[in-house]
Amino acid sequence: MDSGLFTINNVWMMICTGLVFFMHLGFSLLEIGLTRQKNTINILFKNLFIICAGLLMYYIGGFNLMYPGFEEGSAGILKFAGFGITAPENGMVPAYASGGYTWWTDFLFQGMFAATAATIVSGAVAERIKIGGFMMFVVIYVGFIYPIVGSWKWGGGFLDSMGFYDFAGATLVHSVGGWAALVAVFLLGPRIGKFDENNKPQPIPGHNIPFAATGVLILWLGWFGFNGGSVLSANPAITSLVLVTTSLAAAAGGISAFLTSTLMYKNYDLTMFLNGILGGLVGITAGADLMSPNEAVVIGLIAGVVIVMGVALIDKLKLDDPVGAIAVHLICGIWGTLAVGIFGSMAGIDQFINQLIGVGIVGAFCVISSLIILKIIKSFVGIRVSEIEELEGLDRHEHGMDAYPDFRANEH
Amino acid sequence: MDSGLFTINNVWMMICTGLVFFMHLGFSLLEIGLTRQKNTINILFKNLFIICAGLLMYYIGGFNLMYPGFEEGSAGILKFAGFGITAPENGMVPAYASGGYTWWTDFLFQGMFAATAATIVSGAVAERIKIGGFMMFVVIYVGFIYPIVGSWKWGGGFLDSMGFYDFAGATLVHSVGGWAALVAVFLLGPRIGKFDENNKPQPIPGHNIPFAATGVLILWLGWFGFNGGSVLSANPAITSLVLVTTSLAAAAGGISAFLTSTLMYKNYDLTMFLNGILGGLVGITAGADLMSPNEAVVIGLIAGVVIVMGVALIDKLKLDDPVGAIAVHLICGIWGTLAVGIFGSMAGIDQFINQLIGVGIVGAFCVISSLIILKIIKSFVGIRVSEIEELEGLDRHEHGMDAYPDFRANEH
Amino acid sequence: MDSGLFTINNVWMMICTGLVFFMHLGFSLLEIGLTRQKNTINILFKNLFIICAGLLMYYIGGFNLMYPGFEEGSAGILKFAGFGITAPENGMVPAYASGGYTWWTDFLFQGMFAATAATIVSGAVAERIKIGGFMMFVVIYVGFIYPIVGSWKWGGGFLDSMGFYDFAGATLVHSVGGWAALVAVFLLGPRIGKFDENNKPQPIPGHNIPFAATGVLILWLGWFGFNGGSVLSANPAITSLVLVTTSLAAAAGGISAFLTSTLMYKNYDLTMFLNGILGGLVGITAGADLMSPNEAVVIGLIAGVVIVMGVALIDKLKLDDPVGAIAVHLICGIWGTLAVGIFGSMAGIDQFINQLIGVGIVGAFCVISSLIILKIIKSFVGIRVSEIEELEGLDRHEHGMDAYPDFRANEH
């Protein structure tokens, strides 16, 4: 591995790091777009906190916890709380990480990933969670739960030995966030007005659909880095295949969700189109490097149907997920993970079972741990805002400000 | 060509692919910003459809149709409908495409370009076209017309043999979209209220100019990939010259359009400034690799004047183009294509005639084919929405939703 | 230096150029978000003008003025007005600029930087400056003052010989803009209503906080290019360290500003969180390549406190800076520049004194020159709009248009 190739691999990984960072803007715009104006500041605040605190927590200990074997073979968990990680001597030369990139690039790329898991939760619990409790949850989830799960596979742990495959984190990132979202939504209960006296779900429209659409397009671009960077090098054949499968799955997911929802609801539903794109992206994430373009299209088409059904299912279960995060990240994350056993170069019944086991173990761990964490937070500081705060909006109560304080509409 | 250089070329092309993809966000924001609130969802829906369906159509057949000779010399048109294109054996190694990039990168970069042509149409027909008819048009135009025209030059066809030059697609992308926009605008007729009883054009202001400005800045960035990627390698001297000529033409176009419109209308018109930047970008696209920076500035300055005149001309012709797409993409596309015969390293009377012939042939083909396609669509499903739908907005009628359903302004 | 490494270095520098360009969108959204709706068009217009005119002025003469020794040893100032700079013969080969990139990349990267300094001023003077006067100021400041100061350090001038260090421009870019902002704000006086009859500062809320938050996230991403590109090569160890220190300082700045302001004002203040992130980014800019990650966190934490204090100080001095530009760019720019003498691999009392001298000299030059320029502009065309224009908004008076002309809110 010569220094030129090391340099180009590292450049690619830095670009992908930037793109994954940019996904946080995508998530922020998607979430505020699909929720009400009165909670906009609150959601933006939560998302900024996730990026900043998530990165710092990953720096303080998460990185060492997740990749225990990397630094001179020492057990990572013992190294935990090694505030001020220092690059190992060989961390800057081509010998490191199979010549792909430097130690610092490694940390930053993984750190940007870590914060993503918490962002997924943020959307699902929007408009009613207490900001203080949520911030505690983020610190614990990004600092401990995410890296522990990650270490089982990407850190070379037992899921890896067992044969579980998850290329870029359909399970390890999206479902890890999705399971916590499910638990949090269950514990929080629905927003006031989401279900009427007959328990029928009522639409609570968001306040800025152009922001939501902008968010989705930014997320698609960000996925170039999320999946493209998960190659962990700039290998031309694999990176370019991954971008193709990622984009085709996104396109197929969007078209399929739009067609499915048009058939079901007789309406060209933009929100379903957007969620279909995201579903396709999540769906291809586990096996983006294993699939042919044809298989990517099929995975995306199925993800588009899954999304529409998933959103309906969440409603039926009387769960209130304002942005559809559970359907997108959890349900499509599971679909994508299982798809590795059905399509692509690793397909087979054994692999399918491996995938199923991985999904189950990660799910059980995430559900139990988020249940414990959220229960504890609930008993200490509470997790749901007061009724008056929910009705008047979290922006005014928690932040003392308005998202559009000087905005005037025109009279007509 | 060693593997390090192949890798870096491929990385550059993947980045440019991402940037061209990002242009779709730029176009979306520009188009919704310059149109009325009541049609916002509709425009976003159209743009998402263009990206997704365009990419899939290009995958199903467009790519093979456009580059017939690439895959082992077989005639592309016969290969059409080869759903599930498979990379040729040598498509992943430095030997492919002169060492620039892999087959997958090639497909995805070109696929992102393909969708752009349809997006140009989208803006011009906004606020009155039937979504169903428009989607049919997109599928046919991106799947067939765009790749056929592209094959004549970039696929090594007769325009290429003849000496016609179009570096990044001033004619092959922008005019291909622009001609269809012209035909569609002519067939559709103006929006209700665009021309008063004396046939005088009336301004119909958009609803969100910050979105439009954001769109233009994103497009400028995207053009780094559109033009920079058209080098088809990371050649340092050419790529960096191209970014310089592209940016200088954009800057000169903006300044010149703003000055021209200030002189004519005694107002610092932001919309003209924005269109001037786009005009400069389109203007440099045909010869970004041939021009000195000085020549790029001159091309941009002229494009800025052309834009202001062009917008006035479209009005005078009683055509209604809500976002100025025809002036920007068609008129400046023609200007830029002809400029290759006037400025830069290929300038000369012979080249000018070649350029003129190319513009004419592409124009004739695009006008005739879009006329036929749109006429057929019109007779089957219709192309214009009903008066009541146009007045009340396409969002409510076609999509059953509002762009800002929960948006409240402040009382003052 | 082989051609592969030259190519990859050049690719990295072109990407960074694109990212610094993208910062202009970040600044634009931040500035319009934090100001009132009635001045939105005006601010967008100013920002577009800065990018376009700034780039052209840098092209006409600024680049040669700033890097006098680069072109065959000739004195740059004599070369000034060499409209149509031509790349020197060796400017496209690995020998140029230590093998990092081509002459064109050099020009464009530096040109994008140049425009940034003026953008900083734009935010501080918003909502009351005359557009004509401001445009004159931009042309002079970007064309002359910025490159002169830059030549003292980056052009190999006396500040460089003296031992002053400024990695990516905490002083040379951010303070150069910040000092001019301070002078302009002082000369302009506060907006009507900013201080009440008892001289107590009154909040004048902006009109679109989501735009401001979007702007900050785009700026963070842009800083990957601003600091990452200042390495002037793709050196894996240094570029990746720089991205890590940059991101950690941003994260720490955000958290620290939010905690400080929560302690002081009992509110989760999103604007302070945003400014804290920017403060951290500016704070790390002078020594991003010298600091360990731990030191970057400390610099960011301090920057976060500095920002909160700085904003309060500006208020106390009866200065009216609508977007907090002086606190972010000037005060944190000074902090970051001095931090090079306190933390990191160059720390020491001598270095601290060098940094202090550099800050003082640049400050004196910028204050005096902007005072002279603005005084002259004031006496010729005036710098402040009329009271009626300020009250009714600059958009209507200078541009004859509205930012959201068709925007309707929903009735509830």
UniProtKB/TrEMBL annotation, chains A, B, C:
Key word Oxidoreductase present: no
GO biological process, one term: ammonium homeostasis
Family named by the database record: Belongs to the ammonia transporter channel (TC 1.A.11.2) family.
This protein's GO CC annotations: plasma membrane
One family name in Pfam for this protein: Ammonium_transp
Domain Ammonium transporter AmtB-like: 11-404
InterPro entries: Ammonium/urea_transptr, Ammonium_transpt, NH4_transpt_AmtB-like_dom, RhesusRHD
TM region(s), chain numbering: 12-32, 44-61, 107-126, 133-155, 167-188, 209-226, 238-260, 272-290, 296-314, 326-346, 352-374
Gene Ontology terms, MF aspect: ammonium channel activity
Cellular location(s): Cell membrane; Membrane
Keywords in alphabetical order: Ammonia transport, Membrane, Transmembrane, Transmembrane helix, Transport
Membrane topology reported for the UniProt record: Multi-pass membrane protein
Protein name per UniProt: Ammonium transporter
Record organism: Gillisia mitskevichiae
